[in-house]
Description:
Elements: E1 34-35, E2 49-52, E3 55-58, H1 69-86, E4 90-93, H2 100-107, E5 113-117, H3 124-131, E6 144-147, H4 151-160, E7 165-169, H5 180-186, E8 187-197, H6 200-203, H7 208-215, H8 225-243, E9 246-256, E10 261-270, E11 279-285, E12 291-294, E13 315-322, H9 329-341, H10 351-363, E14 373-374, H11 375-382, H12 389-398, E15 403-405, E16 412-415, H13 419-431
Parallel strand pairs: 4-5, 4-7, 5-6, 7-8
Antiparallel strand pairs: 1-2, 2-3, 8-10, 9-10, 11-12, 11-13, 14-16, 15-16
Amino acid sequence: MLTLTPKTLSSSSSFTVHKSQSPRPKSPNSGKFQSSKWRSHTIFVKSEAQIERDLQFETGETFFRHESARGRDLGVLSATLYKRSKGSLRILDAMCGCGIRSLRYLAEANADFVIANDANDANRRIITDNLSQIERGTGDERRWVVTHMLANKAMIERYLIGDFLDMIDIDSFGSDSAFLRDAFNALKLGGLLYLTSTDGYSSGGHRPYNSLAAYGAFIRPMPFGNEIGLRMLIGGAVREAALLGYHVTPLFSYYSYHGPVFRVLLRVHRGKLHEDRNYGFVTHCRLCGHSDTVRWDELGLMGCPCSDTKASSSLVVSGPMWLGPLHDASYVTEMLELAREWGWVSEGTGIDLEKLLSIMIEESDPRLPPGYTKMDEMASRAKMNSPSLKNMMSALVKEGYAVSRSHIIPNALKTDCPMSHFVRIAEDELQS
């Protein structure tokens, strides 16, 4: 069978297919993702050749962001781990745009079959031209197909004919969650669901009734709204899965500022959650800055340690949402090992990916509660200077607290240390 060797692609708009010379112990796509014209914003281009991980493609008039390449990296790593574990990989790219995700799943994750679906049939030529780098195949050997349906219809069709998928990638806009039920129905048990939200207003607490309608969570403004956005998205999936008799496990959660974009990868299992300890409410005190979690049976007992009464007027409550770890440490460790195997984290070519995955592993500590503390905000609240992140982490560990960096914001820490103790430790660190 013919397979694509991406490094052989020239800088012209024509594509060449070559026979594979050996099994792939390393990814052939070890270069940086790049473009002949880098942009820091969303672009609509008509016939400009782009390059990502040495794969050349065109975007036409489709919606495309270079900055989303990191999210595509994570999807490819996960798809590859699934293929290695299960032996087969069938994917629905439900909103494929120009088809770059589908192309990468075929060329890098070696997917057996990819449905590249986009509701806009005007994109057909661009998608087909890009995917034509991979031999289409026929019959049972068919590798890919291009369809033009609404995402829900594409998933319903798979369900109705009993063609259940290993992975569904839904790169949607805003806070559209109407596809969740259809996605669960179209997935195999143990399959992967890669979800997206770009609704920074709802995660920031500025559209609480919108988040309530989309994800069943009433979100109010909190200083770690970008993490709330990930937990809101997972929580909405947890709720929808429970209605169908399933439960989901987050394998990783990724925030990127450029949309903003919230992406979570979930594994789907049969059976409801045995307990609700990871699905509840988050509180934040506007007076002292302390954050906490609240279970359903504690809703009438909410308060903050800085208040003399349980009914604290400074307390802000959001939820329900996912309260558990944002990532699975062992799974992300496998992703990091694969990225190293492929040369994606070698010096000078992928240090950002290596750092991202390493911080995700830190964040996976189940002792860490939702939220993070921005060091500059803590210093302003306490009217003091801020110790270095490294020194503060060491001091917290010495005091017996769990602590990690946050992949969402560089100058912030996640910890189970109460805010009053956090300030005291910071003061002691400055005086030492």
